[in-house]
Amino acid sequence: MKKRLVSGIQPSGQLHLGNYLGALRQWVELQDKYDCYFFLADYHALTSQPSANQLRENIDHTAAMLLAIGLDPKSATLFFQSAIPEHTELAWILSSLVGLGQLNRMTQYKQKADRAGQNAGLYTYPILMAADILLYGAEAVPVGEDQIQHIELTREIARSFNQHYGEVFSPPKPILNRFSRIMALNDPTKKMSKSVPGSAIGLLDEDNQIIRTIRRAVTDSDRQARTPSPALANLFTLLEAFGDLDQVRQMTKQREEGRLSYSELKEQLSEDIINALSPIKKAYKQFSSDKAELRRIYLPGEKKARATAQETLARVKKIIGISS
Ligand code: AMP
Ligand code: TRP
């Protein structure tokens, strides 16, 4: 039997290269090898308090984007979190086993609460995420580095539940790749993120916008330095992600010898990114042109996920004494 993987992404705006390399491209690579459950974490997206129109737009965007990057409903089980009420039901059940101290440790909460203001949803967000994962008995969760802490908490919650009630859940592990932390192009000390202008390249950015963002990307001032600056290392990471290996080797050598032209590096990188994104943009146009059809594509996945979720929740309800 194939190993089961679960992961989700919030529909919270345009997806960028960080999301793509850290999480989504892995999903596509993993979808045939594993039994994958991938979903839009639309309930999670409420924590940033979008307007209804904004949320609807973000959901449509993300739903079309997941298909455009190459996720295939014939390979992976694709669905919307909100279509499966067992997610929120299990989250409630788990919440009584989670200490406030455990939630207080979450660094993402601290960062997001600074920006969006504190709200209880943002605070208990990792419990819903634990439910997302445990509901499907996932062995592993492909995500970017910033989600590791949430997965560790999921492991703790699984163990607490098992200790308190009996063995039901197996603690999941994260799956990371070497692109699990892409830094902002305008500031290599921060993670690439859509909320800061100049930081990210969106997967649907126009070609000239990509060229402009890369041209403005920070590099370093010391060309003779032995090790690349974090900014330059980040550009090399992107080159490695999208470019050809010989090119990367050649430019690495040039850098080591102190004769790398930064403008050449940037031109090459822009070209590689544009080439990689062009088929995605084309596919996106198609998938987003018919919204009703787009939703229909997710229905078989929803049906399958729901059946699995119902089975787990029935077991849980029995073992906790809610149903007999
Ligand atoms: P978010 O848009 O924050 O919900 O993130 C969706 C997925 O993309 C998660 O698995 C994140 O870990 C991943 N991700 C977000 N930003 C980055 C980044 N700068 N580098 C690598 N992965 C990222
Ligand atoms: N918290 C994740 C993020 O911000 C999204 C997410 C929600 C998720 N539920 C999940 C990821 C379950 C993996 C598994 O990116």
Question: Which key features would you list for this structure?
Answer:
single chain, 3-stranded parallel beta sheet, 14 helices, 57% helix, binds tryptophan
Short description:
57% of the residues lie in helices and 9% in strands.
Describe this structure in words.
- It is a single chain.
- With 324 residues, this protein is mostly helical.
- The chain has 14 helices and seven strands.
- It has helices at 17-30, 42-45, 52-68, 86-95, 100-104, 107-116, 120-134, 148-165, 207-216, 230-242, 245-256, 262-288, 291-297, 299-320, and strands at 4-9, 35-40, 77-80, 140-142, 173-175, 183-184, 187-191.
- The strands form three sheets. It has a three-stranded parallel beta sheet with strand order 1-2-3. A two-stranded parallel sheet has the order 4-5.
- Helix 3 crosses helix 12 (262-288), helix 9 (207-216) packs antiparallel against helix 12 and helix 10 (230-242) crosses helix 12.
- 38% of the residues are buried.
- The model has no long low-confidence stretch (mean pLDDT 95).
- Residues 6-10, 41, 44, 129, 132-133, 141, 143, 147, 150 line the site of tryptophan.
Helices, strands, pairings?
Layout: E1 4-9, H1 17-30, E2 35-40, H2 42-45, H3 52-68, E3 77-80, H4 86-95, H5 100-104, H6 107-116, H7 120-134, E4 140-142, H8 148-165, E5 173-175, E6 183-184, E7 187-191, H9 207-216, H10 230-242, H11 245-256, H12 262-288, H13 291-297, H14 299-320
Parallel strand pairs: 1-2, 2-3, 4-5
Antiparallel strand pairs: 6-7
Helix pairs in contact: 3-12, 4-7, 4-14, 7-8, 9-12, 10-12
Bound molecules: adenosine monophosphate and tryptophan.
